[in-house]
Amino acid sequence: MKNNTSLKQLPFLGKKTVPAALRKDLWHPLCLLEFPNSTQGLSVFRKLRELRRLHETSYSLSTVTQTQGIHKGQLLPKKKRGYVLMNQKANSVADMAAVLLIQAKEPTEKEAASANRRVRTDGRPLAKRGTGRQASADALTIRGSVEGVRIRWADILDAEYAETWPVEVVHDGLEKHRYTAAWPQAPPLVSREQLLAEEVMEEDEVGLLQGEEAEVGEGQPERRASERPAVGPKPGAPRPNVATV
């Protein structure tokens, strides 16, 4: 997860809606989609990006309207409105299922004819800005099956936001790494009893160390008065000026 690429995907919906940086201990991925080839993955990514833009710009007023209280029927405050529009988790999962269902269907004759019409067949090289046309045509050739598509979820229960999924899609869990943020609902890795037991063990170790130091100190002989270090100014040091009355 890189800040330069990830922050560009977050929409600006008001002040404080886009963080300055994505902290790895607070942000965690929703899921990871794996495709058998890059052409199919780019086609799905383009569709998901278009659907996300529609959710951010074309939404019903009931989504940002208060439903209870004395301000019922009025728009939510700007801050709460931004939080509501930023919460696209359910829509994202439903969009993934819808796009994969489209990928599982065979392209119609109209879609195939439209894609072939945009591709050059005279042998001339395509311009740099026109490479996407060939990619859109290639995406139609792989439609009709989602075999080999795998979705690895951080929380596999999030897949229930969608009504139906293609049968060929494999759902799996996403392993956690050292930078994965802790889940609020997840139980703690260490119980309270274990923490208390570790504290008691540390106190016992500290007590044993202090006892050994005391025994070593008692065994040492006491210094004589002549061996004790003299307290006072060092020899040869300048004497302070003392005023006499």
Structure, described:
The structure is a single chain. The protein has 245 residues and is mainly α. It has seven helices and three strands; from the N terminus they run αβαααααββα. It has helices at residues 3-6, 38-57, 78-86, 89-104, 109-117, 131-141, 192-219, and strands spanning 31-34, 150-153, 170-173. It has a three-stranded mixed sheet with strand order 1-2-3, with no helix packed on it. Helix 2 (38-57) crosses helix 4 (89-104). The termini are far apart. The model has no long low-confidence stretch (mean pLDDT 75).
Summarize the model shown.
The protein has 245 residues and is mainly α. 40% of the residues lie in helices and 5% in strands.
Radius of gyration: 34 Å
Structural class given helices, strands, pairing?
mainly alpha
Described by the principal axes of the CA atoms, the overall outline is extended
Query: Which regions are unreliable across 5 or more consecutive residues at pLDDT < 50?
Result: none
How far apart the termini lie comes to 79 Å
Which helices and strands appear, and what pairs or packs with what?
Blueprint: H1 3-6, E1 31-34, H2 38-57, H3 78-86, H4 89-104, H5 109-117, H6 131-141, E2 150-153, E3 170-173, H7 192-219
Helix pairs in contact: 2-4, 5-6
Question: Key terms for this structure?
Answer:
3-stranded mixed β-sheet; 245 residues
